[in-house]
Amino acid sequence: MKRTEVSTLGEFGLIKALTQNTTIFHSETIKGVGDDAAVMDLGDKYLVTSTDMLVEGIHFDLSYYPLKHLGYKAIAVNVSDIAAMNAKPKQVLVSLAMSNRFSVEALQELYEGMKIACQNYKVDLVGGDTTSSRSGLVLSVTVLGTVEKHKIAYRNTAQKGDIICVTGDLGGAYAGLQILEREKQVFLTNPDMQPQLEGKDFVVKRQLRPEARMDVIYELEELGIVPTSMIDISDGLASEVFHICTQSNLGAMIYEDKLPIAQETYDTAINDLNISPVTCALNGGEDYELLFTIKQEDYEKIKNHPDISTIGYTTEPDKKINLAMRAGNVIPLQAQGWQHF
Fold it and tell me: What mean pLDDT, rounded, does the chain reach?
């Protein structure tokens, strides 16, 4: 029997290979695989649900990741998937596998972070499962939310000429991760060395304790804006732009000088990491900001919003997905975000 390595397919190739012949039996199932969340018909509203796993050694390193922060992040990144559907989170279920190196007190610290996140996002922790693991810690969180039917946002519904928007700032989480990894290596070489994190609070927090942008979802509702498409930025801005454009059968023009990069991220990338801040913004990942498109007539409603940046527009598919550089030249946008396999 032929053996195909998972790494040759990548995350999305694997998902397609595993789910391409899946049969939908129930008319209530509106959307299955392929978006930030599955969608089910509740009658007057849609139920949206999503699941994410966090695996020790793959998604987090406990040598520098406090358990309380990890618990908070586990909830926040799942709530972010609900936000990406323009929905509101209601309940979460948490499943946990742990080795015997974790004490009850350590697990209580983990759950304390979860409870803080649930309080912040007004989400009920209603159940889950626990089991043992031969090594390490594994978290699996399922979140459920609801949205009015006419307000739901998918990845595949952008239209030509839509304005491309992004919340917050980009690249900070990646810069924070690189700083933490650098300090870990210094410590492994010389355990007497103290971490050099002065002035790095901003980027470290962006990595260790990201926030789901539910605040923007509520603000868009107040402004009367329903995004024509939306996705959260977990794998890097460039990768998410490709998801929206590919699934909507569109091209895009993104402008380098419009990318929102915080001064702290810029300084860290240049002075500490010797990498381009634009690379951090485009391909870093784990920012958990929202990338969305709006109709041109909605621009006046958001043009003065302090936390929403307009970074480009959608085009005909034959114009491809391009990046307009500050120097004036235009190059193909490259998606080099997080690789799961």
Answer: 93
Q: What is the DSSP string of 61-73?
A: -TTT--HHHHHHH
> Of the residues 116, 131, 151, which one is the last residue of a structural domain?
151
Q: What is the pTM of this model?
A: 0.92
Are 118 and 172 within one domain?
no
Residue 33: count of CB within 10 angstroms of its CB? 11
Which residue, among 122, 300, 124, has the nearest Cα to 224 in the 3D structure?
300
Q: Based on the structure, what is the number of domains in the chain?
A: 2
5-19, 31-45, 108-122, 134-148: least confident range:
5-19
Residue 338 CA, chain-centre distance (Å), reads 11
Sheet holding 308-315, edge to edge: 229-232, 290-294, 163-167, 308-315, 251-255, 321-324, 330-332
Q: Are residues 142 and 170 in the same domain?
A: no
Which CATH number belongs to the domain containing residue 136 in this structure?
A: 3.30.1330.10
Residues 115, 289: Cα–Cα separation, whole Å = 22
Q: pLDDT class for 338, splitting at 50, 70, 90?
A: low
Q: Which is higher by pLDDT, 125 or 4?
A: 125
Distance CA 228, CA 151 (A): 9
Residues 64 and 137 in one domain: yes
Are 170 and 309 within one domain? yes
**11: in domain:** no
Residues 189 and 288 occupy one common structural domain: yes
The helix (H) or strand (E) run that includes residue 141 is strand 137-148
Range of the domain at 328: 163-332
Retrieve residue 334's tokens.
Answer: 């490259």
Per-residue model confidence as pLDDT tens digits over 235-247: 999 999 999 999 9
For 238-286, write each residue's pLDDT tens digit. Answer: 999 999 999 999 999 999 999 999 999 999 999 999 999 999 999 999 9
CA distance 220 to 228: 12
Question: Do residues 231 and 84 touch, judged by C-beta distance below 8 A?
Answer: yes
